[in-house]
Amino acid sequence: MKITSGKYKYRNIEVPAGIRPTTEKVREAIFSMIMQWLPDAEVLDLFAGSGAMGIEALSRGAARCTFVESNRQNQRVLTANIANCGAGSEAVVIGRDYAAALDEISGRREKPVFDIVILDPPYEKTDYYVTAITRLQEYGLVDKRSIVVCEHLYDNKLSDTYGNLSKFKEKKYGSIGVDLFLVDNHESI
Length: 189
What we know:
Helices cover 28% and strands 23% of the residues. It is α/β, with parallel strands linked by helices. α4 (98-106) runs parallel beside α5 (127-138).
């Protein structure tokens, strides 16, 4: 698998055994939809796996990405992928469960507000979306400038709203669904 565009274009990304990476076609589609959020963005790749989504964001102009991955083997592959792309100075890896990582991030003295949040948990873990989106809002990690990108099985429909976040775009790519959420009262794109 390769990074599809930007300064790390064509760099190889290793995929840990047992995970389902976002395909190049779906990554291209997602990033074409969120281009306006990318320049100098603070990105959170909450279920990072190989890190392909977060590295793609960095490659396309994001300033920093926080990668969250709880599996130690996946962390090793993720860290190697970041190093292979030369993105170490732009990346932070948190080796914890997503909920514990959000708790940790929210407790920082200089707590970030993420411009882009990528949620792509294991597809069978549908409750992870609700928990993650709820905590992102409760902890003030997203605001009216933020976009939340959710990848899921298309047949496992996500809600149209989660707290102050509303779905403004829904796309289907084969069996994969991609939903984009913004804070209410934000103009649709």
